[in-house]
Design a protein that fits this description.
With 295 residues, the protein is of the alpha+beta class. It folds into 2 domains: 69 residues; 150 residues, Immunoglobulin-like. 37% of the residues lie in helices and 20% in strands. It has 6 helices and 10 strands, in the order H-H-H-H-H-E-E-E-E-E-E-E-E-E-E-H. The chain has a 5-stranded mixed β-sheet. The chain has a 5-stranded mixed β-sheet with strand order 4-10-9-6-7. The radius of gyration is 27 Å and the shape is elongated. It starts with 6 loop residues before the first helix and ends in a 27-residue tail after the last helix. Bound molecules: copper (II) ion. The site of copper (II) ion has 7 residues, from loops.
């Protein structure tokens, strides 16, 4: 008769499993636990991010409910219809049309439901008018983001009196990640521009990314409103070449006064005019270039 563990062995096994689970879980910091509760998502930090976060949580819930039902049914049939004696083989069923129709229709229905809510979240996140000029006019701040091999340039065109009608820019290098400055609760229209290859503008805290595609100026654009103060990480999410991993940046969400002061500083430094990234394209700052740029 099968694998019957003695009672004592089962107790010991249960103790080992519980003990190691407790040890593993107690190793988690408060941050880890909060992240586990969010199902590994960063804290949503823009007004638009919340609909992505909801989609994420409800999709997990739907998947878990489906999983529990399926595992339950598997366990049920394995136990109920198992072979009960050596001489008798359980009833072998083929071709059960109602069941086959059910397991074809049910997943299709689920995909339709997921699709509906995905489109709804997408419409919410991409709510800006299709036309860039209209989107820029509606938003409080306008930023042209340039993704160039191997860093980022941010051009500020609207959102502060300190601009005085000018466009101001700041740029990074592979050694110094640039910082994109934004203002809490003020909407930003981002236009994405690339002078070389396809990059992807990704700020995990905004739960959003969009490709930066050469030749698609004024087409890949979106608007969002940061709703938390803080400094967030950003990166390129499209493998764009050797130093792709160096394409890091920060996003600082701050007050209007601090933003104005920063714009005034950029103006003082002479960073005036639209910078579409050409100057940084071949710079591999911070790397030893004597051996061909290898680290
Ligand atoms: Cu890139």
């Amino acid at each position: 008769m099968g694998l019957e563990l003695p009672k004592r062995a089962r107790t010991v096994a249960l103790g080992v499993v519980t003990g190691s689970a407790l040890l593993v879980l107690s190793g988690c910091s408060a941050d880890d636990r909060a992240q586990i509760k969010r199902l590994a998502m960063p804290i949503p930090s823009s007004k638009e991010a919340h609909s992505m976060y909801d989609l994420w949580r409800w999709s997990w819930l739907a998947a878990m409910v489906t999983g529990v039902i399926v595992w339950g049914l598997i366990a049920y049939v394995v136990i109920k219809y198992r072979r009960k004696s050596e001489s008798e083989i359980p009833v072998q069923t083929r071709y059960n049309l109602p069941i086959e129709i059910f397991y074809t229709v049910a997943p299709v229905m689920m995909v339709i439901v997921f699709f509906f809510f995905t489109v709804q979240a997408q419409d919410h996140v991409l709510h800006a008018p299709k036309d860039l000029t209209a989107a820029n006019a509606q938003a409080d701040l306008n930023v042209t983001v340039v993704g160039q091999q191997w860093s980022w340039t941010f051009n500020y065109a609207k959102g502060s009196d300190a601009l005085g009608g000018d466009v101001l820019w700041e740029s990074g290098t592979t050694a110094h990640a640039p910082t994109l400055w934004l203002v809490k609760d003020r909407s930003v229209s981002f236009d994405l521009f690339s002078p070389d290859v396809i990059h992807s503008f990704w700020v995990p805290a905004f739960l959003f990314k969009m490709d930066v595609v050469p030749g698609r100026q004024a087409q890949n654009h979106f608007t969002l409103t940061p709703d938390r103060y803080g400094t967030f990480e950003g990166r390129c999410a499209e493998l764009c070449g050797v130093y792709h991993s160096r394409m890091l940046f920060n996003v600082k969400v701050t007050t209007q006064a601090e933003f104005d002061a920063h714009m005034a500083k950029l103006k003082n430094e002479g960073n005036v005019g639209m910078n579409l990234g050409g100057s940084q394209v071949t710079t591999v700052d911070g790397l030893d270039t004597s051996n061909g740029g290898q680290q």
